[in-house]
Amino acid sequence: MATSSERSPPPFPDSEDQDVLDTEEVRGRDSDEDEDLFGSPSTSPVTGMDTTLTSDVSMKPPSDIMNDPLIEPMSSQTENKPASEPSDDFFDLTNNVSVVAAAATKSDDFVDILGSETGAQRGEVVKADVTVEATIDKSEVTAGITDPLSQQEAKQTSTAPVIDLSGDSQPVTSKIANPLVDLFSDAPPAAEAKKPSSANVDLFDDEEGSDIFAEPLQTKPAKQLQKSLFGEPDEDVFGEPLGAISKKPVPKEQKEKSVTTKVTAGGPLQDSKPANIFSQAAASTPSVTSTVNSKSNGVHSEEEGDIFAAEATVELSLDSPRNERKKEAIAKPSAPTPTSLPAAASLTKPQPPALEELEEEEEEEEEDKFDIFVSVKDPEKIGDGMNAYMAYKVSTQTTLPMFRNKTFTVRRRFSDFLGLYEKLSEKHGPNGFIVPPPPEKSLLGMTKVKVGKEDSSSTDFVERRRGALERYLQRVVNHPSLLQDPDVREFLEREELPRAVSTQALSGAGFLKMINKATDAVSKMTIKMNESDVWFEEKLQEVESADQQFRKLHALVESLVVHRKELSLNTASFAKSAAMLGSAEDNTALSRALSQLAEVEDKMEQLHQEQAANDTFTFAEMIADYIRLLGAVRGSFDHRMKAWQRWQDAQSMLQKKRETEAKLLWANKPDKLQLAKEEIAEWWVELHRWGAGRGVGRDGRIALAAWC
Amino acid sequence: MSIIKPSFKNTGFNKLCLSYCQLRSVSVDLNHDASLLIDIPDALCERDKVKFTVHTKTTLSSFQKPDFSVPRQHEDFIWLHDTLVETEDYAGLIIPPAPPKPDFDSPREKMHKLGEGEATMTKEEYTKMKQELEAEYLAVFKKTVQVHEIFLQRLSSHPVLSKDRNFQIFLEYDQDLSVRRKNAKEMFGGFFKNMVKSADEVLISGVKEVDDFFEQEKTFLLDYYSKIKDSTAKAEKMTRAHKNIADDYIHISATLNSLAADDMTANKKNLEKLSDLFEKFRKVEGRVASDQDLKLTELLRYYMRDIQAAKDLLYRRARALADYENSNKALDKARLKSKDIPQAEEHQRQCLQKFDKLSESGKKELTSFKGRRVVAFRKNFIEMAELEIKHAKNSVTLLQGCIELLKSN
């Protein structure tokens, strides 16, 4: 588990805390990045961890907020403006309640889009909920604060002045804004993505939100979110200001001030929320993307990617709670959500299973909508002798806004593909995701290629592998969460990739991996998990038997291919022989007939060969893919079991610590008592982290359901 | 249409009794002479022995009855063939090749293997495999009967050979011919004779050919024989490959079926369809294999043997030629020594006569053989092409139907 490292990304500690509130939901989706972190917070809300979490959130948000406003100016002003106008209309039309609903509707769309994105986003979503509640609470308090925002709105409406303002603000903000901007750049694509998904819109038709959706503006969703956060009164103001902010620098400054004022008035919690909101707004601006690479923050590009994802997720998260609400609302035709405050409160807690189901559905829908095609072409041998390797051209065609270009091509070698898998499986495997496995390394096949024999078997091998790699990549990008992974994007986009060392079978890393695998196998045998979930038990059996059958089928198809090749060979030799016979025949007519027979047999030989190739590439390879996938599915079962075991460990440990605490309490030793309390808190977190691990099971279930 | 009931004892096929419609002989086109009609309507397979019922219908006065049937075994056929070959008077004729010994070893062996591998297969799979083997066995049996029948029909349609006394006895004698099997010495003798013959062939190949026709025929037949032998082997392999594919289809179909049984999702139907498709494909592929075997491989195999018979004729003629040359030399010697001249002259005259007679009938035989071969090839190729087209069309409709079904799901 690389959890510790994952947690480290500084910008998102908030998210963890927030996650706590929405724990269940988080579990479902957070798997991508900080699952562990998220998981722990998720359980905590019940216990009262919330308060601590919230405090954390408050700590960080201010900075975020600051950044956000700056970023907003950076974003293209022109684009935002048109968007902002419609949004304004929206606000006017809708009552506070309606606004919330609208936000919720938007959020739903977002969620769908985001669903494709990694679990990290989900976690953030949770945060958003938390913040929403907090904001709501404080929004009442901060009514006065909202006023400045309203002023901003006024400014926005008068576009000309705004422009002036923006001009001023930009120079100041530019430096600070850049890193943030990069982060936010990710968000806009998400927003765009949301738009296409119209399915949700239908659900929300009743509400005004649908109108908003209809309008293509990216900024709107962000605005709505902000509004919702701030409570009803604020919503109107904020929504407009956000749009305005992104467009115009001056409003931004004002906003910053307002934010700060709010912070002071409302407390840290509020601050954190506005920051998120801002970031979202910033994200909405499409211009930012170009600067993604800049590492001004000192954070690596990958991390930036994460940050982006996180921000994007924030938007999502905001949406998601509302979505939940809406779902509830949908469930109960009673409709419009109650006043924003209660609604917000209700949002965080309910998180019913229905949501999860909906999310699943959404995920599936999204998969269909993914507009990205990866092809692997032109295998090329590079180098000579045993150091030779095959390089493949990886071309991506996409209309997804998260990529900078519509088409791009990079060269990758086989070990890069394996390296990608290693990274993905390390990150996502423990979350119960089924990470599509790449084709296995084949020493024999590769050696043949290396030796440079230009015979059919080596070209056959390369072609097979090429096909397998293509399908593997396509599966990865079709996975809504994996597509969001920065490593995947890097793999597809970046020119140069650091060499993946650990994939070499004979390297030290490979050796370590083998040892790890062995210990895993042992622990698997020793763990006796009394399966409480009948569903999983059944699925496991199903997978096992399917695996067996597929293996058998694969062997059979392989033998069919062998026989077909034999047939083609025999047909060829018969054709030759018939041609000879024809030449020996002294009857002209019969001689011609025989040579014609030879020709026909020759053509048949070609056909048989083609058929054999088709059998191999479309049938046998497909089955082989599924065998590998089944292996991955079993892997996720193992992860689930491991998570369960750690959870058990944590539970018993906590029990022990509690006992010692009780003893100490009895003995009246305050100094040690403090220590024990800390320890208990520690183990409590641990317990919930692994308790969240049970979420892995749910993820696995979702993935399985999708797979089946 | 004749009915054949093979029964297989002491094999995996325990008393397998099958009846089927026998196809008319395929490999030879015979100008049927209504005066003597022969067929084998019935055959019984017991252990290694196959008992054929030879049925004759005739208007010839040399037979006592116009319609009669006699039981005959494979060995009787061989005996008939050997006596014909050894008859001096028929040296100038192409003696129809003897039918090959019935060979049920390969299906039997496969049956055995199948029994061993039963545990690894599903019941359904096993049943199908067994059916497939039974069909294969039946095909072998059918072919065996056919070649024996063809042998007799060739004899009956031959103007000279149909008058042969031994042939008539073979057809008419209603008791068991009880031809004893060749004993070891005879087997060895046959083998030795073959050796001598091949050595002799090499020796007399030095003799200068006097007739262009025979010179050409000889080179043609030698060349043709090696080519057709090669083609036969290749065609056999090809047919077997088809058969293997058909067998693969059985297993794939069965596995898909069991996958479908485990599958509870919407995919279940697709898998079932696919399994069904493979099952149907299996049948088509099986037909392709058996038709190819019957129309192509059997044809080639038969003519391979026929050409061997023609080559034997050429050998006999070449032998006669060599004898004639020798007698000429002997005559010269005798004249030189002025001793035994009339005997040598007589011998030389006889040799010449024999050689001329052989050449004359050989020429006739070879020409008719050529015509016969062309006609038979033509007929079989047409039939084969028609069948192949039929099967290909079947496959296409099967595939199209399957695609439709899958799409409509």
Task: Explain what you see.
The complex is a heterodimer of chains A (708) and B (409). Chain A has a domain of 133 residues: 2-Layer Sandwich (PX Domain), CATH 3.30.1520.10. Chain A has 29 helices and three strands. In chain A, strands 1-2-3 form a three-stranded antiparallel sheet. In chain A, strand 2 and strand 3 form a beta hairpin. Chain B is mainly α and 409 residues long. In chain B, helix 2 runs antiparallel to helix 3. Chain B is elongated and about 105 Å long. Chain B folds into two domains: 138 residues, 2-Layer Sandwich (PX Domain), CATH 3.30.1520; 188 residues, Arfaptin homology (AH) domain/BAR domain (Substrate Binding Domain Of Dnak, Chain:A, Domain 2). Chain B has a three-stranded antiparallel sheet with strand order 5-6-7. Chain B has a two-stranded antiparallel ribbon with strand order 1-4. In chain B, strands 2-3 form a two-stranded antiparallel sheet. Chain B starts with a strand and ends with a helix. Chains A and B meet through helix 27 and helix 28 of A and helix 6 and helix 8 of B.
